[in-house]
Sequence to fold (206 residues):
Amino acid sequence: MKRLAVLASGSGTNLQAILDAAADPAYPAAVVLVLSDKPGSGALSRAEAAGVPTEVVTWDEHGGDRRAFTKAVVETLRSHGVELVVLAGFMRILSEEAIHAFPNAILNTHPALLPSFKGAHACEDALEAGVKISGVTVHVVDVEVDAGPIVAQAPVEVRDDDTPESLQERIKAVEHDLFPKVIAEWARAEWEVVGGRTRRRGRVPI
Ligand code: GRF
Fold:
């Protein structure tokens, strides 16, 4: 059973999907901590409702210094004995100290098919580009933002009448299914990272 922390800034619907999945005793990870940079966020309320310990580390209390912020996050994760970290709508970029502290053990969900539409406005950018298919990417967090090894992707159709909000909602529905599954596979060590790519263990080399 892996000790899992979820980092979230927003409403926490992905956190909820993870909490729901982890309620199954067969799930290979236990959510031992929800950490947010936003006091009062929906994610914290969901954690409290589920009886999961919470911590808040704000950007401002570290003077907007990314390294100091990351150091505090890493110390908090360590103090809870965390082994696996997932970013579920965590709107802060961690410095490389976090990647070194948790090598190949931080996963993120991104609301687009990477490497397209990196950054915080993926749905707006997909609509502006006029793509007909966008989607979800679950990837390992690396030093470069939205660029770590991809673990899984799923497509989502872009509709003619989509707004960024409507597209985001359909993408989230897919994330809620995909992300908890990928986290479980990662926790069970079904994947490995080789040469900047992921592959299922035991398969022939790419
Ligand atoms: C998700 O769509 C995620 O991909 C993005 O932020 C959103 C978080 O939503 N990074 P929620 O807080 O889980 O509802």
Summary: The longest strand covers residues 29-36. The mean pLDDT is 96. The pocket of 5-O-phosphono-beta-D-ribofuranosylamine is lined by residues 8, 10-15, 88-89, 109-111, 171-172, 175 (CB under 6 Å). The chain has six helices and nine strands.
